[in-house]
Amino acid sequence: MCGIVGCIGQENSVSFLLEGLEKLEYRGYDSAGIAVHGGSGIKIYKASGKLENLKTLLNGNSGKYRLNAGIGHIRWATHGVPNETNAHPHSSSENTVSIVHNGIIENYKELKKELAEKGFNFSSQTDTEVIAHLIEDSLKPGQAPGDAVRNALKKVDGAYALGAIFKQDPQTLYAARKSAPLILGLGENRNFIASDVPAILEHTKRVIYLEDNEIAEIKSSSYKITDINGDILEKKVETLPWEPVSVSKMGYKHFMLKEIHEQPDVIRQTLFDKLKNSDEPLNLREVKLTKKQLEDLDRVQVIACGTSLHAALVGKYLIEEFTGIPVDVEASSEYIYKRTIVSKNSITIGVSQSGETADTLTAIKQAKDKNSHVLVVTNRPDSTMAREADSLLPVNAGFEVSVAATKSFSAQLMAFYLLAIYLAEVKKSLPGTTIEEYKKELIQLPQKIEMILSNKEKIHDCAVKFHNTRNFIYIARGINFPTALEGALKLKEISYINATGYPAGELKHGPIAMLDETIPVLSILVPGKVYEKVLSNSEESKARNANMIAVTSEEDEHLEQIFDFIIKIPHTDEIFSPILTTIPLQLLAYYIAEFLGKDIDQPRNLAKSVTVE
Ligand code: M6R
């Protein structure tokens, strides 16, 4: 949700800022801007729309700004329409300071009123502009800019990651953080700030993670980090474990397609060092609960948003099935406005690809405040959520750039398989032979995904036939119901087609009224407990003239009579099938969006990391 970059001491600051923003485009893409110190003053360039427009505006200008401080921003609008005026950076009335901001200033209306009464003029509809004026208002004669930033931020309620440059101080870049991610990157005679690692990874691997209420004053060869009162803090310098290549498309047309194809390796990676052989116990060393705590565990609460919420729903099914422990799953945005109920032997699991989703972060903090052990399942061990967690279940999916989550979903599912089996091992709730068979199957799954990925024709044909459809229904039962939700979400997100997932049994309680020849129904039906039932619900849909699509591993001739398209997946036990059934649904959404010419990696109105509640 908005991306920030900044640099000081960089040879060509404009190129750095533009390249950094390109790497952060997944965080927002409705307008972009940069501010660079030209020696005599601050120059601002902004453009509405995609970053491309800003690049065009700056064409030929990139060599002009060397070594002085610069900041850049890519926006996902919260206050004010996405136009050039509302694009960041924003400046104070006298242009003494320019800032970029990610987050929401909750008391901006009160602050705006006070500042307007003092004579400050506002040119945008944003909450951000108040911070620029507030800093200028705090910058008394003879006062250091750092003190002005600290004094201004003391008056601000809400969330911010902030980058600022001052007219009077071209050699310093200022940064601050509260409830929105911001890192400081340390280079050789040049330093950087960024909302996320990809923006600086090509330049440095040495970083400092700023914490809430910390303010950094950064020069090209030194930095000072203080708390809000100006007391100097000693911060740990960490080394990033990633390579820049992990954020490239590697020849694929879109990041989404690349990420779909990475799934076999992502799963191998997630299993690596946790499950080497089916006859060895699982090694979940990151789960810091004692054997006794695990044995006594009698309730699990899972909180997440979007795709991570769907993974959590599969996790509920697995933990309940393997251990008999009741599991509640709730959208973080609902959880945080209810009474937080934590019982003695319970744990709270937060699931998040980014580890920065504001609602989930607030939810896990609430659970922690009630003394719950918080286990975080995340793809980003460097994230704020990972830092808040008591235990971590890393999912090793690597950077996911496409806004539509794909490989992180598969990796989260694997994390839940591992956790559920681990709990079953400790609690002895499943026979040893069953556990061993399950482990064997887990090891086989990457190969089975590869088989789906090398047989995509049917999925492609299906996309050709249905890409002009306006409504889609996905049905399934049991452990594949969350897969139906996830398949429908993927289609909605990237093609803007209205797609809804239903438990197949719910169809006749209302949604069946919509069915006719214009609405395709996609049924997920794998052999197991609910196969026959989903088949009957599919027949009921066929009887209403719906176009029928099956995702199945069953060799049932009867299917030909019901379904217009049959997308085959390799056989696996029903309990593991979501890992396989989800792949054709991702590809179907991708191909449909591709036929419709949509902006697949950056769908309209969305952002990868939702850092506002
Ligand atoms: O980073 P998180 O997993 O916490 O993000 C949660 C959702 O915002 C995310 O899954 C969103 O729904 C994706 N766009 C799904 O493709």
Jot down its keywords:
binds 5-amino-5-deoxy-1-O-phosphono-D-mannitol; Glutamine Phosphoribosylpyrophosphate, subunit 1, domain 1; Rossmann fold; eight-stranded antiparallel beta sheet; 24 strands; 3 domains
Given the helix and strand composition, which structural class is it? alpha/beta
Shape: globular
Query: What does the main sheet amount to?
Result: 8 strands, antiparallel
Q: What is the name of the CATH architecture of the largest domain?
A: 4-Layer Sandwich
Number of strands: 24
- Do you know the CATH topology of the largest domain? Glutamine Phosphoribosylpyrophosphate, subunit 1, domain 1
Q: Uncertain regions: pLDDT < 50 for 5+ in a row?
A: none
Number of helices: 19
Proportion of β residues?
A: 15-25%
Question: For this entry, what is the oligomeric state of its chains?
Answer: single chain
Q: What value does the Rg take, in angstroms? A: 26 Å
What would you note in describing this structure?
- The chain has about 625 residues and is of the alpha/beta class.
- The chain has 19 helices and 24 strands.
- The protein folds into three domains: about 5-245, Glutamine Phosphoribosylpyrophosphate, subunit 1, domain 1 (4-Layer Sandwich), CATH 3.60.20.10; about 255-450, Glucose-6-phosphate isomerase like protein, domain 1 (Rossmann fold, 3-Layer(aba) Sandwich); about 455-595, Rossmann fold (3-Layer(aba) Sandwich), CATH 3.40.50.
- The protein has an eight-stranded antiparallel sheet, covered by helices on one side.
- Strand 5 (about 90) and strand 6 (about 95-100) form a beta hairpin.
- Helix 1 (about 15-25) packs antiparallel against helix 2 (about 50-60) and helix 9 packs parallel to helix 13.
- The structure holds 5-amino-5-deoxy-1-O-phosphono-D-mannitol.
- The site of 5-amino-5-deoxy-1-O-phosphono-D-mannitol has 15 residues, from helix 9.
